[in-house]
Specification:
With 119 residues, the chain is α+β, with helices and mostly antiparallel strands. 14% of the residues lie in helices and 29% in strands. A hairpin with an 8-residue loop joins β1 and β2. It comes from Ixodes ricinus (Common tick). It is found in: Secreted. InterPro entries: Prokineticin_domain.
Amino acid sequence: MLKFSVGAILLLCAMASSQKPQGFEEACSGPEDCQPGECCVLGMQRFSIPNCRKLGQIGDTCRPNNAPENRSLWYPRGIEFASHNTYTLFCPCDAGMTCWDARCQPTKDDFGNALDYQQ
């Protein structure tokens, strides 16, 4: 009986430690929490919570040189949330596109000519 009680307590402790804090159920801590075609993004507002968003498509707003970052985030009530490989404000553009002039646009070919781009 004692072995069962100790085992049950350890299991409950493990489950509690692996759960996200209340209010963070939809938060992503990295790209593995997102679906294919999405990335983990953190807004710039105070106490923003990272969440999954779609990769940029043609014409979408983007941030040039928006490299992913590892972060330790602090929230009220002493909550700390660690994230890795998260982007700021916007996901990067999807494959075959580049962020130019703050918009996702088709990548140029080897000769520097823009590929067909219809808006």
